[in-house]
Amino acid sequence: MDGANHSVVSEFVFVGLTNSWTIQLLLLVISSMFYVASMMGNFLIVFTVASDPHLHSPMYFLLANLSFIDLGVSSVISPKMIYDLFRSRKVISLRGCIVQIFFIHVIGAVEMVLLIAMAFDRYIAICKPLHYFTIMNQKMCYLLLISAWVIGLTHSAVQLVFAVKLPFCGPNVLDSFYCDLPRFIKLACIDTYSLEFMVTINSGFISLGSFFILVISYIFIVITVCKHSSSGSSKALSTLSTHIMVVILFFGPCIFVYTWPYPASHLDKVLAFFDAVFTPFLNPVIYTFRNKEMKTAMRRTCNQLIIYRRIS
Q: Residue 148: which of 118, 169, 122 has the closest Cα?
């Protein structure tokens, strides 16, 4: 692990998504549209929650932070991928590759913890409604947010503290369209079995562990909801369905990429493309189109912006 000074590779070459220029053009249009839409949608959610007093509650506080993280998800991979679709030779520097890996894992881990926090918020709201504002106070919200960032930074730093010391002598071709840690490690000039095992345990544990925590939480919540027959319970069940949908869309690709023992390059790329392009767009769509309060607040915010623009 002490061979960092012996690296002769200064850049990596991406194989990309496809060799067909027709398909690349199609992917360019699709990814550009979804990138702009996800950036605008998530920014609007953050701005709406921050500016509308009716949304100053724990649930919307966590939703705004999830949208802020989705802005990061969109920005870490998509701009470079879209730019590379214009080029026949897709390259990234060694330092740029390490930086991309660092932010991918920070943002990914933070989003996992935020999804758990949102499940915890719904559990308290549905299973212990009388104690909701006592438990989910401002202090608890900030504690959950700080914990998410501490876990995310620790998760990413633990892996990269070893990866940055790896020597690279060639080849320098990554069969991907972004820098992912498993393929990055395999290009090192030394035996990296122990490091690959550590990455699988680290990333696989946080993905599977978070997923099972969420599944167990939602099982308890659904059981509690099913015991009631009021209209409020049906509304709660509708809200839960959106949360479960987001969890499946986010964790499915992560679990497959980091825990599946038989890597499939093409399937990995499809799942990674879906995770990078569609998931940040689907989160605001799922949370806003099925939430009347959020849609009303967003319309109110947009109207205020239009009025302000006309006055100015």
A: 118
Cis peptide before 280 (omega within 30 of 0): no
Nearest to 219 by CA among 287, 123, 283: 123
> Tokens standing for 128?
């212990």
At residue 183, does pLDDT exceed 80?
yes
Distance CA 88, CA 75 (A): 22
Q: Which helix (H) or strand (E) holds 269?
A: helix 265-273
What is the spatial distance between Cα 71 and Cα 64, in angstroms, rounded to a whole number? Answer: 11
Distance CA 276, CA 296 (A): 28
**Mean pLDDT, residues 239-255:** 74
CB-based contact 73:280 (threshold 8 Å): yes
Q: Specify the pTM.
A: 0.86
CA–CA separation, 34 vs 273, rounded Å? Answer: 11
Torsion, Cα 212 38 301 246, to 10 degrees, reads -20
In order, the DSSP letters of 225-245 are HHT--SHHHHHHHHHHHHHHH
Query: For 35-56, how does the pLDDT look when each residue is reduced to its tens digit (9 = 90+)?
Result: 999 999 899 899 889 988 888 8
Do residues 298 and 288 make contact, with C-beta atoms less than 8 angstroms apart?
Answer: yes
pLDDT of residue 3: 42
Any long-range contacts for 49-53 (C-beta under 8 Å, 24+ apart)? 49/297, 51/301, 52/297, 52/300, 52/301
**What is the C-alpha to C-alpha distance for residues 155 and 161, in angstroms, rounded to an integer?**
11
Mean pLDDT of 217-233: 71
Query: How many Å separate Cα 90 from the centre of its chain?
Result: 24
